[in-house]
Amino acid sequence: MTVKTRGIVLGQIPMRDQDKKLVILTEDMGLIEAIARKVNGGRSSLSAAAEVLAYSDFCLYAGKSGYVVNSADLNQNFYDLRMDLTKISLASYFCELTRFILPDRDNGGICLKLLLNTLWMLEKEKRSPSFLKAVYELRLLSVSGFAPDLSGCLRCGAEENLIFFPVDGTLFCPECVGVMPPDRPKIVLPQPVFLAMRYICEAPDEKIFSFRLNPDSERALESTAEYFTLCQTGGQFKSLDFYKSIR
Ligand SMILES: [Zn+2]
């Protein structure tokens, strides 16, 4: 039986005989693995589609032991992005984080669209890497069941002078913060950062990049989004460590 799907390669696992197991984020099947035969030599027609970040229309054979790639038509390979160390490092982190989140049939299409849009913005330098990193992290988490509650102070509903608890994904105002244990990790949120976080999590798909912050707020947004991501995933991401080491 064969199935057709569209997706982007997030990772490769080398196998014997120049075969590779591809980790693919698909439009309609979530995250899947599929074996691509004889793609190490670079001459196979599948080789280009087997590269990490290659976005293709796949025809897969569904066998007893999983999917095997029959053929693939490459749509986009983000070539310019691969030529820049900062960009490719950040893109690698997006791939690693997305693999960790494990999109399924329900949110795979949303995650794919988010990733493609973010990679395009990164490749074309539409926004800074710091900005795109924060937007990608927050939006990916919020469409994957890790959305923070950004409606306001959890106790009184206040929407200013808020303190964010990244482990809980909740906000408290200074008057109500006493209900939380004093040693709980927390971040005082400047108002523009709070509003930006809320916007990223709630705006329609096509609007999520359409806001601006001053450099200080952008830095605060970046560190808050990263801290929240690490708290929520408990993740250790090698690609993130590398990205930060070259910044
Ligand atoms: Zn309050």
How many distinct helices?
Answer: 8
| Class computed from helices, strands and strand pairing | alpha+beta
* Radius of gyration based on Cα positions: 20 Å
Average pLDDT for all residues = 96
Distance between the termini: 47 Å
Taking strands numbered 1, 2, ... along the chain, how are they ordered across the largest sheet?
Answer: 1-2-3-5-4
Uncertain residue segments = none
CATH topology of the largest domain: de novo design (two linked rop proteins)
- The backbone outline, from C-alpha atoms, is elongated
CATH superfamily of the largest domain: Recombination protein O, C-terminal domain
Strand content: 15-25%
Let me know the number of strands. 8
The helicity comes to: 25-40%
The CATH class label of the largest domain is Mainly Alpha
